[in-house]
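Hey team,

Filing this mostly as a record. A colleague (T.K.) asked me to run one chain through the structure pipeline before their review meeting, and I want the input and output archived in the tracker in case anyone asks later how it was produced. No errors, nothing strange. Just documentation.

Input sequence:
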Amino acid sequence: MKTILSLIVSLNLTIVSCQTNTTNEKQEAIINSKPIEVPVQNGLAKAYFASGCFWCVEAIYESVNGVNEVINGYSGGHTEHPTYQLSNTGRTGHAEAIEVLYDPNIVSFSTLLDVYFGSQDITQVNGQGPDNGSQYRSIIFYQNENQKEKITNKKKQLAKKLNVTIAAEVYPFLKFWKGEDYHQDFERLHPNNPYVRNISIPRLKKFQRKYKHLLK
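Output structure:
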């Protein structure tokens, strides 16, 4: 019986190991992919970020002057058509992300990076605040080499200035999957939600106190 149990355990561990290796290979392929550049339409450019719960990040960017709209969704993973439930398993490779539609004549990509780094705990790995897991990890998505250079330089400068290791990953942008309708404008529509009241709104107010000059 012990022999049989040992074989079952060994088989299960082998299966898990194979699945993990396959997932890692898929993620590695994504990181090494050529980025897709999204064209400016109707005077609006698009940028993509992941920084913990997208309810929080959406509200932060929507408070910035020059930002027209923010959409919640998923990006950075290897699975097709991710959902909130699937993303929460941590096995899709996707992180909760936002799509920022902005007027580049009013706010630059470089400034959006300042908003990104200034609105989170830049040292927290795989999460923000009470939210933990790869689906909450920090990722900055670049669409071309110019953006990648700006991201890399800001990370280096900030790490040197603060003498810390910055957790944000840098990925080529490939695709953004729009999230479910009920996630859009969540903080604005549900101000009395316990999470929004205790986590999202304090995070927003903390950012707004530090960056008054960037607000609408």
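Quick notes for T.K.: The mean pLDDT is 91. The first strand starts at residue 45 and ends at 51.
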